[in-house]
Design goal:
The chain has 138 residues and is mostly helical. The chain is built from four helices and no strands.
């Protein structure tokens, strides 16, 4: 049986069992007749389930779950790198604003310190992004 038919049949069979069970439970019959009908439906469902290739269902689930896990891992790496690049730019912009402010106020001592901070911030953000990009490639 194909993967699509197995999962489709399983959903159909479960829906049919639930629907039939509800119909039987709310039908105007004696309790003993209702229970007997329900037992017969359950026995029919058990017989039909034996036709489903459980190994195929298990394998399909495993393949889909591993693929889903890989996709989530990739998504996380992409998001982290994108966020890190944005944050790195914000840090560099803030450091540049600090230098510009020091220049504007005409304080050479603060300008020198602000430039040192800006250079260190640029180098640090480049290092972090390089590490993230290296991890993404793996």
């Amino acid at each position: 049986m194909s993967k699509k038919k197995s999962s489709g049949f399983g959903k159909f069979a479960l829906g049919a069992l639930v629907g039939a069970s509800l119909g039987i439970l709310f039908a105007p019959k004696k309790g003993s007749e209702t229970r007997q009908d329900l037992k017969r439906l359950i026995d029919d469902m058990i017989a039909k389930l034996k036709d489903i290739d459980m190994d195929e269902v298990r394998e399909t689930f495993e393949v889909k779950l591993y693929q889903l896990k890989e996709d989530i891992d990739d998504l996380d790496k992409e998001k982290v790198l994108k966020i890190a690049k944005k944050k790195a730019q914000q840090i560099q912009d803030a450091a540049t604003e600090l230098v510009n402010y020091a220049v504007e106020k005409g304080t050479p001592v603060l300008e020198k310190s602000a430039n040192a901070i800006r250079e260190k911030a640029i180098q640090t953000t480049k290092d972090v992004l390089k590490k993230l990009e290296t991890k993404e490639e793996k």
